[in-house]
Amino acid sequence: MVKPYTQEEFDSKIDPSVSKQWDENTPKEEQFKDLYKIVDGLKGGLLTTIRPGVGPTSRAMAVAKRVGPDFLFLANNHSEKFKDLKNDKTVQVTFQNSSDMSWVSVTGEAVTTSNDDPRIKQVYSKGVNAWFGDLGDGVHTGMPEDPRMTLIEVKANYITYWKSTSTFPGFIKEVAQASMTGQVADTGINRRLTDKDIQNARDSGL
Q: Which residues lie closer than 8 Å to 5 by C-beta, 6 or more apart?
C-alpha cells in the first residue's frame, strides 16, 4: 500500500523508500528463515571480488551449498577471482528473484581451500565439469579430484535483504500509483542482519 511522504521524514533526511519498509521487530529466527527461503529458491547469484586497480568485479556463480548464513561455491583456481582473493578476501554475494523483485546482499570474507577438502566431493554435482573441460591427461578431468577444482567458502558478516510482499503485477501497480500520487511505494520488507546476528545463527544451527 502506498504511503504519504511526511515533512518529518524530509527534515530527518530519511530515505522514505527504506524507512517505510524497514523491519527490526520480527524475531531474528523468522528473519533468517525468510532469508533462506529467498536464496534457496534461486540457483545462483553474483559473486563480487575486489580487483587491484579496478575495484569490485562480479560474475555469476552457482551456489554449491548453503550452510546456515554461509555459502559454498565450486570454482576453477585458474580463474582471476583467485588472484583477487589473494589480495583481498572481502566479497559480496547478491541474489535477486526476477519474479517478485526480492533481493539479498551478503557481505563477508572468502576462504579458499585445497583440492583435498572433502566437502568438494560432497557438493560436486554432474554438470560442473562442463565449466572446466577435460584435458585428456587423466588428471585435469573436471571431476572432484581435478587439482583445479577449488572450494570458495563465503563467511557472511553482514546481510541485508528485501522481501517482496506483493506479486510482480502488484509491485508494478503500486509503483505506478505512487508515481502518480506523489506518495511512496511500500511493496516489501527491508531487513538487516549484523555480524552478531549471523554468529548467533551459526551457533544455534539456524
A: 16, 182, 183, 184
Q: For cell 569490485, name the residue.
A: 56
Vertex 64, ends 117 and 156: CA angle to 5°? 85
Dist. CA 88–CA 90, nearest whole Å: 6
For range 154-164, the mean pLDDT: 97
Nearest to 94 by CA among 63, 54, 128, 131: 63
pLDDT tens readout for residues 58-73: 999 999 999 999 999 9
CA nearest neighbour of 92 among 71, 66, 76: 71
Classify residue 114 as left (phi > 0), alpha (psi -120 to 50) or beta: beta
Taking alpha carbons only, the member of 176, 172, 174 closest to residue 2 is: 174
